[in-house]
Amino acid sequence: EASLERQSSHYNPLRRFVLAKGNQKSYKQQYADMYFLRLANLKPVVEKIANDAWSDFEIAGEKVRQVERVLDVRQGELCWVVGTVFMDMPLKPNILDDIAKDHWISAPPARQKFISPSGQDQIMLEDESGRLRLTGVFLQHVMLVTGCIVAVMGTENANGDFEVIDVKVPDLPRQPQRWERDDGANDGHSGGGQIAFVSGLGISGDEGDTLTMDLLMEYLLGEAGGESDQAEVCRISRVVIAGNSITEGTPLALREEEKKSSKKYGYDSSAYNPAPTAHLDGFLATLLPSIPITLIPGDSDPANASMPQQPLHPAMFPHSRAYAAKPGSIEPGWLDSSTNPWEGDIEGWRVMGNGGQPIDDIFRYVEGDDRLGMMEALLRWRCGAPTAPDTLWCYPFQDRDPFIIEETPHVYFVGNQPRFETTVIEGPAGQVVRLICLPKFKETGEIVLLDTDSLDVEVMQFRVYDED
């Protein structure tokens, strides 16, 4: 009987989002530096695009001119200026409200959208000199959120507002060639492989919710289906788990007498449930002898809440951590517990993705639910998390902003979205990007398979038959 061999995985992650350890990591600095860094990095790019597009633009004989600073805009003068967008929305979270919640018996539910039904929202453009309110019908057709760097053209009206007639964004940066970082790796590449993407496993520890995951596990191991199915599974060279592997925890409120008698050794079973992490560890340990895994944390996983989320600690995976790289090793292990966001090269293609938080936060700023449109806008803004640090928690970077997108990926995936969606977008210099919205596996039973030759995608669904 012929044995089947799984396709090998060429994997070269970038470690852009790994933070310093211990005392080297400080939260004392101000967040304003991130906005200045972002503006300083992207302003020259936007200025070039705006200058190329508007250099000959004129209205009624008046030629448009560039203004260096926001506060240099003069009333009635046709001009354009570059700055950072700030959405002044009364319904956005407020730190003072968060403090007040501590005194409430029951806090109100989180808002789905920050958009004010009474039209009180205002769009501002700011730089180091000051702030300018933007108005105009044109803004209704442009997706803008706090933190994106744009150039706006128009005139200041009698009210001191800037009437916008056009907007330019940084657009997609340079896209690397396939195998650019992997010299010689493509020489022995056979082609015809696939990458499996899954998100939202939502392991709760209950025995009943692992049936669909067992089906997924058997399929990936080649234990389900016939010979033709097994031959197809052999093409899958890697599994990428994109966030929310463990369901949202609900900490138990301890009574006063329980707080006093805390355990010295082990854990308190009344306050901590080890079953979800144990089930995830078992799932990974079963797959890892057969297939390498990239594990990205999500909103509900036991990692730091602020972006970029750091890798899940190997101590939580006593069985599967044997497949992880040794501490200090440059080469990734078969289990690569990664950051969120994540970026790297798989089969020579530049791949970038996250657990869903940046897109979920952008959703709160804009009308509708066009997730692919939000993903495209995020790439064209060249910022992986534009709303951080305003409404998306993040580390206060001082000398660099890792969220700035320096190279256009070939594949951009976002986990834990309401449904599967995909499209291909193109950039001004011929860049081509495959966008993938990954659904929550626990709700849909769907995984996404990406062809590593054509970058085409297909969806596979796993369901347990229920007579009801």
Provide a descriptive summary of the structure in words:
The chain is globular. It has 468 residues and is of the alpha/beta class. The strands form 4 sheets. Strands 1-14-15-16-18-17 form a 6-stranded mixed beta sheet. A 6-stranded mixed beta sheet has the order 13-12-11-10-19-20. It has helices spanning 32-54, 95-101, 211-220, 227-233, 256-260, 275-287, 357-365, 371-380, 441-444; strands at 11-14, 58-59, 62-63, 65-66, 79-88, 122-126, 131-135, 149-156, 162-168, 194-198, 236-242, 293-296, 335-337, 342-346, 349-354, 411-417, 421-426, 432-439, 446-451, 457-461. The longest helix is centred in the N-terminal third of the chain and has 23 residues, at 32-54. The mean pLDDT is 84.
Strand content: 15-25%
SSE order: EHEEEEHEEEEEHHEHHEEEEHHEEEHEE
Given the C-alpha coordinates, what overall shape results? globular
Assembly context of the chains: single chain
Describe the strand arrangement of the main beta sheet, using strand numbers: 1-14-15-16-18-17
Quote the distance from N terminus to C terminus.
41 Å
Low-confidence stretches: none
Arithmetic mean of pLDDT: 84
Structural class by sheet pairing and helices: alpha/beta
| Computed CA radius of gyration, to the nearest angstrom | 24 Å
Q: How many separate helices?
A: 9
Sheet with the most strands, sense and barrel status: 6 strands, mixed
Count of DSSP strands = 20
